[in-house]
Amino acid sequence: MNKKFVIAYLVFILVIAIIPINGKESTVNNTFVFSLRLDYIFHIILFSPWWLFKPKSYNKIRSWFVFGLLFAIFSELIQYFVPYRAFNINDLIANCSGVIFGTFIFVLLKVFNNTKKVTN
Predict the structure, then answer these.
(1) How confident is the model over 79-104, as pLDDT tens digits?
(2) Which pLDDT tens digit goes with each residue over 8-50?
(3) Which phi and psi angles does 82 have, rounded to 5°?
(4) Nearest to 10 by CA among 52, 58, 60, 38
(5) ∠ at Cα 106 (103, 110), nearest 5°?
(6) Where are the beta strands (DSSP E) in 19-74?
(7) Could you tell me the residue range of the domain that residue 94 belongs to?
(8) pLDDT averaged over every residue in the chain
(9) How many angstroms separate the CA atoms of 95 and 110, rounded?
(10) pLDDT recorded at residue 58
(11) CA distances from 81 to 43, 54, 87 (A)
């Protein structure tokens, strides 16, 4: 993956974390899909592309995954220190869920590709 794209993605998430968007009266906070607030679904979707930054070897998957979780935590924790934003544990869980989902997709694709190579 292009390093510029990765940096742009990380900066984009940090900017979204600190700009004043999505207030308490926001439609996103009051819309539910399968009993999940739409806001949480957006968090999961935002962090799911973490698998696009896949490491080149299995040895780096663990550190890549841990960095993703730490970044997800940091991007929510930073809102605690911004006066017009608020830390939300459910947002934090959704961020980490997105990283976990992205990692699951990556591992699933990696296993599928290796199985396909073996059978050919």
Answers:
(1) 999 888 888 899 999 999 999 998 88
(2) 888 999 998 888 876 666 665 666 677 777 888 889 999 988 7
(3) -95, 120
(4) 52
(5) 140
(6) 32-33, 36-37
(7) 3-17+24-119
(8) 82
(9) 23
(10) 62
(11) 19, 31, 8
How many residues are listed for the chain in this entry? 120
Quick one: residue 34, left, alpha or beta (phi over 0 = left, psi -120 to 50 = alpha)?
A: left
- Is the separation of the CB atoms in 40 and 94 below 8 Å? yes
Task: With a cut of 80, say whether residue 60 has pLDDT above it.
Answer: no
Q: What angle do CA 110, 115, 117 make, to 5 degrees?
A: 95
- Whether the model clears a pTM of 0.90, i.e. scores above it, the answer is no
Give me 105's structure tokens: 């997709």
3-state SS of 64-114 is: HHHHHHHHHHHHHHHHHHCCCCCCCHHHHHHHHHHHHHHHHHHHHHHHHHH
Cα 69 to Cα 25, 66, 93: the distances in Å are 29, 5, 10
Q: How many domains does one find in the chain?
A: 1
